[in-house]
Amino acid sequence: SLFKPKLVTPLPFSTYVSRIYLMKLKEDDDACREALRSGNLMLFHKLAPLVRRNKHGVCQSPRITTPVEQILEKLGQDKQLVNEAVLMSSTESNEPQFCLDVDLQQNGMEMLCGGVFMDIRKAFLMLRTPDASMVAKGQALLRWHQTHGFCSATGHPTVRNQSGSQRVCPNSGITYYPQMAPVVMALVSDGSRCLLARQSTFPPGMYSALAGFCDVETMEEALRRELAEEVGLEVETLQYSASQHWPFPQTSFLVACHATISPDKTELSVDKAELEDARWFSLEEIQAALQMKTPPLNRRSELPGFWVPPAVAVARRLIQEWADQQQ
Ligand SMILES: NC(=O)C1=CN([C@@H]2O[C@H](COP(=O)(O)OP(=O)(O)OC[C@H]3O[C@@H](n4cnc5c(N)ncnc54)[C@H](O)[C@@H]3O)[C@@H](O)[C@H]2O)C=CC1
Ligand SMILES: [Mg+2]
To answer: Which residue range or ranges hold the Nudix hydrolase domain (predicted)?
Structure first.
């Protein structure tokens, strides 16, 4: 097979035990309602996450612990709205955590919660990785509920369980679960250089690894097809590195790999409809880019001609791993 196996570290035991508790919350509506009273909430307004700066100026996604019913009552809203919260299942300390989208007075909410609702693209560049990942997860779950209110077979309204882990159509009996769109991402190496590309929608100067949505096919097939289509290359080997849920354009599941091609077949034929540019980069160029803070704005808010994605993107991990392997 094209794939080389890789060992993945399993969860520590303590994490495993609290996962069992969270599994119970997914299935037991009463236990979940109870947990919602004592748990914490990540708030969104029309899918924009609440963001706040702490006293050190660090941007955070705050977890609201004041009973949200009180906030809703102060705004003159129905406090039952809190039951629309969705269980997110895991914080780093494995406490039950929920997310809730409020489509109410934005200013009033911001004042009572002490933060601002920020577009997720902007929030992603400002938040640290664990917060950014949780915000992405919350937004994905909330968006899924907002777009799956009806059965696609019968058109009947679907009914959610308390945790929000599923929606059922009482008419057809079909159960719907939150979904992600699988994407294969590859950092291609020819042995001494690596291939990065940019789409016209990326911030100026940013180059990243190649990626593409999987059709109904294996990842190996998707990668072969994507590399042939986008840059005209033939992949030789593939090694799994890591995976990531990615919120752009919405709810992708990125499987990130290292790929190699033959060093005597490196000529690129770039699909200009998909990519603005694709180029081979030397180790020196990559090392210089990895030294920059991101986004690397100078004093006049200008970006350099070449930089790589921030740590929140799994693409950067691939690039860092490739650079480390070249030493
Ligand atoms: N973290 C990172 O550094 C990077 C992340 N990405 C992510 O990888 C994913 C794939 O990126 P692209 O190169 O744009 O994909 P792509 O190369 O498959 O091209 C996008 C096209 O695929 C089609 N498509 C098929 N299935 C789709 C689906 N489920 N959702 C949307 N479009 C679908 C559409 O016609 C769309 O225009 C996106 O989520 C993107 O945000 C891409 C590059 C870098
Ligand atoms: Mg692509």
So the answer is: 178-303
Calculate how far, in angstroms, residue 275's C-alpha sits from the geometric centre of ligand 2: 7
Instruction: Write out residues with Cβ below 6 Å of ligand 1.
Output: 181, 183, 208, 211-213, 246, 248-249, 252, 254, 274, 309, 313-315
* Long-range contacts at 74-80 (CB < 8 A, ≥ 24 apart): 74/108, 74/112, 75/104, 75/105, 75/108, 75/109, 75/112, 77/104
Torsion, Cα 60 130 258 270, to 10 degrees, reads -30
Q: Domain spans of the chain?
A: 16-152, 181-295+302-326
Nearest CA, atom 15, ligand 1: 212
Closest ligand 1 atom to Cα of 254 = 8
| Other residues' Cβ atoms within 10 Å of the Cβ of residue 79 | 14
Structure confidence at residue 70 (pLDDT): 83
Residue 309: which region, alpha, beta or left (left: phi > 0; alpha: psi -120 to 50)?
beta
Going by the DSSP 8-state scheme, the letter that residue 60 receives in this structure is: E
Name the pTM for this structure. 0.90
Tens of pLDDT along 71-116?
Answer: 888 888 888 899 999 999 766 666 789 999 998 888 988 988 889 9
For atom 41 of ligand 1, the residue with the nearest CA is 248
CA of 183, nearest ligand number: 1
Mutate to test the pocket of ligand 1, among 213, 294, 316 (most ligand atoms within 8 A of CB): 213
Residue of 6 and 320 predicted with greater confidence = 320
Identical fold, 16-152 and 181-295+302-326: yes
Residue nearest to atom 23 of ligand 1 (CA): 213
| pLDDT (tens digit per residue) in 102-157 | 988 889 889 888 899 999 999 988 899 989 999 999 999 999 999 999 999 999 99
The verdict on domain 181-295+302-326 having CATH code 3.90.800.10 is no
